[in-house]
Specification:
By secondary structure, the chain is of the alpha/beta class. The protein is built from 16 helices and 18 strands. The protein has three domains: 176 residues, NAD(P)-binding Rossmann-like Domain (Rossmann fold, 3-Layer(aba) Sandwich); 160 residues, Dihydrodipicolinate Reductase, domain 2, CATH 3.30.360; 62 residues, no CATH class. It is globular and about 75 Å long.
């Protein structure tokens, strides 16, 4: 009997665990689901006969190692900073590893040791990063096969709220790890534009966000995502003139979030003792409000150089930032205060549907003729639990795990992302059976 260790039973795990358990009887798998929350594990496994539950502290070496030793493959859905613990154990006990997170410097340093051990540590195997890599390299390779020269590649992805569940002025609700929204873009972004490197600092990332048209949805805004430049070699397009990876949001969201950043409300560096403090008092302290002749809202408008009826002010007001609501008593940063507020305001209702949008725009020269290919995917979730985000993050990892265990894929070795045909072709083919498919237009 083969054993799969799934580390993490959070928001993104439901489709992954369902997929593995649905195949467990056929392949005689044991699926161990490990997490710190017994309730989260129980919710995902539901006493399935081929599931084993393990409530553990993932940072506890004895608890963790005992499970890794038993596994034939490890799939980690833990927070990114915890993957390294599992990675070291996987190397020690010679187990293949799959994660959806970006390759961290610590895991990247293990590349040669992983190769020497004949192991596969497949990172960035979720949605973004993940499906974006697989579909992008599939497009790039197909264009290169017909001796065409790619001049521009832009890739966009966003986890949004479906129109039928969109009932707030931010046009956004949480469908993934909420903390990630607070820290999004803090490292700034780098990309290539017309042959020149662009370096955008955090403070300007959401300002003047440009827009793209998505068929059936209209215009969405985007902001550049992390360091696009590091993928030039991985995508094998070193001579390209424009290369951008970006995150999609509603245009109003980007304007509002730029205001939030400008006010310093995402900061993790400051500290507030919130005992007896209200939301409005926090904003007053944070923004230096001392002119009681004007309202707090007008003061914020002045700080942001906005007219008093600007939509951004009503968006901030909708979050309750000008209200005298008591904050929970603790010592926290502004970012942590803001997260508490957003967890309430941007929570999905049980029947709410999220929506994942991904679009690639590729410009290339073929026999001297300029062409543009647009490849798009729009997927809606079923409800809060069975979300499009959980589906697109979890299924690629689950499918790869199955194909490795059943020898449909010979695992490539090293610390990798899924940019090789031997991985992306079979995985993308199976994803289509689950409605995760792209429509292409050339014009």
């Amino acid at each position: 009997m083969q054993t799969i260790l799934v580390a993490g039973a959070g928001k993104s795990s439901i489709y992954l665990i369902d997929y593995l358990l649905s195949h467990a009887a056929k392949y005689k798998w044991k699926v161990i689901v490990a997490d710190g929350s017994a309730a989260a594990i129980e919710e995902k496994t539901r006493n399935h006969p081929f599931a084993e539950t393990a409530v553990i502290d993932i940072t506890s070496a004895p608890e963790r190692e005992a499970l890794v030793k038993r596994a034939d493959i490890v799939v980690s859905l833990m927070p990114p900073h915890l993957h390294i613990h599992l990675a070291k154990n996987c190397l020690k006990y010679k187990k293949n590893l799959i994660t959806a997170s970006y390759v961290s410097p610590e895991i990247k340093e293990m590349d040669q040791a992983v190769k020497d051990a004949g192991l596969m540590f497949m990172c960035e195997m979720g949605l973004d990063p993940g499906i974006d890599h697989m579909t992008a390299t599939q497009i790039i390779h197909s264009i290169q096969r017909v001796a065409s020269t790619i001049t521009s590649f832009k890739s966009y992805c966003g986890g949004l709220i479906a129109p039928e569940s969109d009932n707030n002025p931010w046009h956004y609700k949480f469908s993934w790890n909420p903390k990630n929204i607070i820290t999004a873009g803090m490292g700034g972004a780098k990309y290539l534009l017309n042959g020149k490197e662009a370096d955008v600092p955090y403070e300007k990332l959401f300002d003047n966000s440009k827009r793209i048209n998505v068929d059936g949805l209209g215009y969405l805004a985007y902001y550049p995502n992390r360091d696009s430049l590091r993928y030039l070699d991985l995508y094998d397009i070193p001579d390209i003139k424009t290369f951008l990876r970006a995150t999609l949001r509603h245009p109003n969201f980007c304007r509002g979030w730029h205001a939030v950043i400008s006010l310093g409300l995402t900061s993790g560096e400051d500290s507030f003792e919130t005992n007896g403090l209200t939301t409005a008092e926090w904003i007053k302290q944070k923004t230096g409000y001392d002119n009681t002749a004007i309202s707090l809202q007008q003061h914020v408008a002045n700080k942001l150089n906005l007219v008093s009826n600007d939509k951004i002010l009503s968006m901030l007001d909708w979050l309750g930032l000008f209200n005298d609501t008591a904050l929970a008593p603790k010592r926290v940063s502004s970012g942590e205060i803001l997260l508490d507020i957003l967890l309430d305001k941007w929570q999905m209702a049980p029947e709410d549907k999220d929506m994942v949008v991904m679009q690639h725009e590729v410009e290339y020269l073929h026999k001297g003729q300029k062409n543009k290919l647009t490849s798009s995917m729009v997927l809606k979730g079923e409800n809060r639990e069975h979300s499009a985000m959980a589906k697109t993050v979890g299924l690629p990892m689950a499918i790869l795990a199955r194909m490795v265990l059943t020898q449909k894929i010979i695992p490539p070795t090293g610390v990798l992302i899924p940019n090789m045909p031997s991985v992306y072709k079979p995985v993308l083919t199976e994803l289509e059976h689950y409605g995760i498919e792209f429509n292409e237009e050339v014009g």
